[in-house]
Automatic annotation (TrEMBL):
The organism of origin for this protein: Neogobius melanostomus (round goby)
Family from the record: Belongs to the NADP-dependent oxidoreductase L4BD family.
InterPro entries per record: ADH_N_2, GroES-like_sf, MDR_fam
Enzyme class: oxidoreductase
Residue span, Oxidoreductase N-terminal domain: 5-77
Swiss-Prot/TrEMBL catalytic activity: 13,14-dihydro-15-oxo-PGF2alpha + NADP(+) = 15-oxoprostaglandin F2alpha + NADPH + H(+); 13,14-dihydro-15-oxo-prostaglandin F1alpha + NADP(+) = 15-oxoprostaglandin F1alpha + NADPH + H(+); 13,14-dihydro-15-oxo-prostaglandin E1 + NADP(+) = 15-oxoprostaglandin E1 + NADPH + H(+)
Keywords: Oxidoreductase
Protein name, as recorded: 15-oxoprostaglandin 13-reductase
GO MF: 15-oxoprostaglandin 13-reductase [NAD(P)+] activity
Any one GO BP annotation for this protein: prostaglandin metabolic process
EC numbers on record: 1.3.1.48
Length: 108
């Protein structure tokens, strides 16, 4: 089992976001099932579109959206490092087909 961290939208913010607008939540992830992969975030992106998106499409208590560069930690297939659009978590278990907005990158 992996201890993961996720940024939670504690409250919708006006003006410049404050630390109190977010909460860092820890959770234990299950082992990936057949057809899933375990991803580890290497870089997290904070982008201007997150402000209007969070106001319109997110409820307080939701995991913040964002983009991450992630390494494949565990998989039943041999996968290269990937760039994936996903929820902003330190670790993520997701479908092995990676049907999100993924882009493979060369691992050199």
């Amino acid at each position: 089992m992996v201890q993961a961290k996720a940024w939670i939208l504690a409250r919708h913010f006006d003006g410049f976001p404050k630390d109190s607008d977010f909460q860092l939540k820890e959770e234990e992830l299950p082992e990936p099932k057949d057809g899933e992969v375990l991803l580890e975030a290497v870089f997290l992106s904070v982008d201007p579109h997150m402000r209007p998106f969070s106001r319109v499409r997110m409820k307080e208590g939701d995991v913040m959206i964002g983009t991450q560069v992630a390494n494949v930690i565990q998989s039943s297939k041999s996968l290269r490092p990937i760039v994936i659009t996903a929820f902003v978590n330190q670790y993520e278990v997701t479908d092995e087909m990676l049907n999100t907005n993924e882009t493979s990158i060369n691992s050199k």
